[in-house]
Write a structure and sequence with these properties.
There is one protein chain. With 223 residues, the chain is mostly helical. The chain has helices at 7-14, 18-30, 47-61, 67-82, 111-118, 123-214, and strands spanning 2-5, 36-37, 43-44, 90-94. A hairpin with a 5-residue loop joins strand 2 and strand 3 (43-44). The radius of gyration is 47 Å and the shape is rod-shaped. The chain is 68% helix and 6% strand.
């Protein structure tokens, strides 16, 4: 005879809060996984349910695995085991600190009846859990949108940096070409100035020689 645990006891076992446990349970039920409920619609958990929740948390913590995909993987594993395992009898809920001493067995039902019972929810709990799940999905979508927007901004900034680097390279090439051209002009000017100086010296020497020659006597030319 298998024992059934209260939500608070399962929270302590798994190290999660009540909202997270309800979200996981609602997600599993949405995929057809049966979770026991008492006549008031409150959930109770068997050992196999605790194992299923542990497996869901393990899959969900893997990098890049969405919660929805993790739930599908867990349901697939459970379905393969359920087809070969008989259903167990249950005893009343065990609290987080003690186990009820006098257990009253519950009537064993087939899988289809249990599934229909698990799908029964009170209107208030249904609205609360659906709202919580929707809020979680909306938050995930916002995070994905923010992530995509951040990636687009980074790519845009990288493109701007590449364009700036290209412009700087072109500017450096132009400036280098202009500097080389300026150096050639300076060298040409220096050579021209040197030529002018040398020409002036030559003209001065020529004028001096002409002046000296004009002062000689006519007979001195025969010497």
């Amino acid at each position: 005879m298998e024992e059934i645990y209260s939500p608070s006891y399962v929270q302590d076992l798994l190290g999660i809060d009540g909202n997270t446990l309800r979200k996981y349970a609602t997600l599993l039920e949405g995929h057809g996984y049966p979770i026991h409920r008492n006549p008031k619609g409150h959930r109770g958990y068997f050992d196999k349910d605790v194992s299923t929740l542990r497996q869901l948390i393990k899959y969900y913590k893997q990098d890049g695995v969405p919660l929805e995909q993790a739930a599908i993987s867990v349901i697939t594993d459970v379905s393969e085991k359920t087809s070969t395992e008989p259903l167990a009898k249950v005893v009343p809920l065990q609290t987080s600190t003690e186990t009820v001493s006098e257990a009253t067995p519950l009537q064993t039902t087939d899988y289809q009846d249990m599934k229909q019972e698990c799908n029964h929810e009170t209107s208030t709990e249904t609205v609360t859990e659906a709202t919580l799940l929707q809020a979680t999905d909306d938050q995930d979508m916002r995070q994905e949108c923010n992530h995509d927007e951040l990636l687009e901004r980074i790519e845009h900034l990288e493109q701007i940096n590449l364009d700036l680097i290209k412009i700087l390279k072109e500017k450096v090439v132009r400036e280098a070409a202009q500097e080389e051209k300026l150096n050639r002009i300076l060298k040409y000017v220096e050579r021209t100035e040197q030529f002018v100086v040398e020409r002036s010296k030559l003209e001065e020497e020529t004028r001096r020689q002409v002046a000296a020659a004009s002062q000689k006597k006519w007979w001195q030319w025969w010497k």
